[in-house]
Amino acid sequence: MSVPLIPETAPFSAEQRAWLNGFFAGMFSRGPNGSGVPRIETALTPLTILFASQTGTAERLAKKAAKLAGKRGFAPTLLDASQASIEKLSQENAVLVLASTYGEGEPPDNAKSLLTALRAASGTPFSKLRFSLCALGDSKYAKFCQAGKDFDHHLEKLGAQRVGERVECDVGQDDKYTKWLDTALNNIAPAATPSTPAAESEEEDDDEPKPFLAPVLDVHRITGDGSAKEVNHVVFSLKDSDLTYAAGDALSVLPSNDPASVTEILATLGCDGEEAVSTASGEVSLRHALTTIYDLAKPTAELLALLQLPTDTTPFHVIDALLATPTAKPKAATFIATLKKLQPRLYSISSSPAAHPDEVHLTVGAVRYETAGRPRAGLCSIFLAERALAAGKVQVGVHANNAFRLPENTDIPVIMIGPGTGIAPFRAFLEARAATNAKGKNWLFFGDQHEKSDFLYRDEILAWQSSGLLTRLDLAWSRDQSEKVYVQHKLLAAAAELWSWLESGAHLYICGDASRMAKDVHNALLQIAQTSGGLSPEAASKYFETLQTAKRYLRDVY
Ligand SMILES: Cc1cc2nc3c(=O)[nH]c(=O)nc-3n(C[C@H](O)[C@H](O)[C@H](O)COP(=O)(O)OP(=O)(O)OC[C@H]3O[C@@H](n4cnc5c(N)ncnc54)[C@H](O)[C@@H]3O)c2cc1C
Ligand SMILES: NC(=O)c1ccc[n+]([C@@H]2O[C@H](COP(=O)([O-])OP(=O)(O)OC[C@H]3O[C@@H](n4cnc5c(N)ncnc54)[C@H](OP(=O)(O)O)[C@@H]3O)[C@@H](O)[C@H]2O)c1
Ligand SMILES: Cc1cc2nc3c(=O)[nH]c(=O)nc-3n(C[C@H](O)[C@H](O)[C@H](O)COP(=O)(O)O)c2cc1C
Q1: Number of domains the chain is built from
Q2: Residue 356: how many CB atoms within 10 A of its CB?
Q3: Per the domain annotation, does 360 fall within a domain?
Q4: How far is the CA of 109 from the centre of ligand 3 (A)?
Q5: How far is the CA of 429 from the centre of ligand 2 (A)?
């Protein structure tokens, strides 16, 4: 009995035909007693879906891709980039890659080791690998989708065959991902089952909890008199919603625009706001559309073109562009066609559901600054500070972050470093550790400018210290003395003890400012590994890379 061959007339390319013939050769075998009856062994097409993700978006999209791939006759395997290696990838035939970008054009923490290894590798270890890559990023960053571009480049350089063009998705461009997935699954390898359109399947299958219009229960300032900062504690009700979360997750919050900004834009357009405009959610008034649907911050290239403004003198906000061209007066419909949609903002959840059933809490720093002689307000942080209570309900969603979790084994010690609003997930962690009577030790590093006015959650933290839940608390007040004292100074001062916690298996967490604090804390940790651990600089770097791969060094930084 010979294996059936795909005839040349079949609707496949030569390459696909060769692949299918090889595939069938492995799938058909002799029946019992050499009867010659072909027996089909359930052989689906293997497909690996690799994700490089910091806050879970690429991971969620990878899971969606796996679901659809399963329906299309693939046997998908999800691969966290921290578990991938050159050797592992060189054994694969077909890989889809979802890669987001962090820092300033850097890969997410879970993909740092892999990208370093790809950069250092040579030859063509991936000569049998076909791949397709979807990069996720945010065009407000200078190095848009850089990590995705880097993975794409290095995979190809090491001999892998790119199938289709790399796709780069900006925030909110889910349609681009859906199209990419469709094409990638059609082309990466011939699958056993006819295709299900990705969009259709997504509708049935989307396991992301739907956003919920959450009642706002409380917004109150938790920085004291005299503080240079306004930080608000915000509480939403999740009663009667399908939303559930775990400590470590983030909440997405969809703000609406400031009515005063909308009125100013309407005035420059010469509109009264009652003009009807058609949007994806139907026909609404221009005022409603500008308040709840469109982003009035950074002007798009399309708006600049409409107003005939040069792109090299990008105005800061949409209103600046309109004020710079007072005679332009575009029509309402033409104007809104150039705007991007409002995007939700993420906030690390600062409550544990065990301590606050049916509620979710946030710790939100109000963003206010001045540019081009105008005071500016961060959209969502100021919406929460000033308008959310009056709005009554706000659209929220849970953004699962599996990369930032307490250890499952509650005996494991944890070290938490979270100055400023970076305290948020650690309040949730400590509440969760208290609720589960966790035996593991807890060490918190917190700090801000002044002890008197900026000690967020002071009473709770001191009570946890008194009760023994907090084994150790180190506080860094940066402006209570002439020289700056930051959390990393406290880490260095406790180097020997910190090293012994790490060596005894502690999990290490950092949350808060990405651009300065997280980098400086990392450098302090490298120093500690050298001074207290006796490691060389290279071994110290490797030590924390290994902790990251083992999911013992986790960061939630922004
Ligand atoms: C995973 C994650 C977790 C987060 N958790 C928290 C949290 O727990 N608490 C918290 O407060 N925030 C948190 N953030 C940040 C939060 O998502 C928002 O980015 C923040 O609230 C600002 O949003 P906004 O809409 O108020 O400001 P926007 O309207 O988005 O404005 C912010 C933008 O304004 C510009 N800008 C800001 N300051 C200046 C300045 N001085 N000069 C010039 N331009 C400036 C920058 O372009 C900046 O990107 C988190 C972010 C992420 C990704
Ligand atoms: N991506 C975004 O859209 C976004 C939005 C909001 C906030 N953020 C970031 O989130 C951070 C959190 O804001 P926050 O006000 O809660 O806290 P923060 O600015 O991080 O301040 C908390 C404490 O950290 C200190 N600090 C400053 N530089 C440091 C460094 N290099 N290493 C260690 N500590 C340092 C501060 O001291 P001093 O002030 O005395 O220097 C202060 O005592 C902001 O800094 C901002 O960068 C980002
Ligand atoms: C602190 C921070 C830094 C970021 N840096 C970049 C960047 O340099 N380039 C970019 O294209 N996107 C950048 N992004 C946007 C993320 O890549 C984007 O939000 C992505 O969807 C996140 O995916 P994830 O949830 O899988 O990590 C950054 C986001 C944050 C919060």
Answers
A1: 4
A2: 15
A3: yes
A4: 12
A5: 21
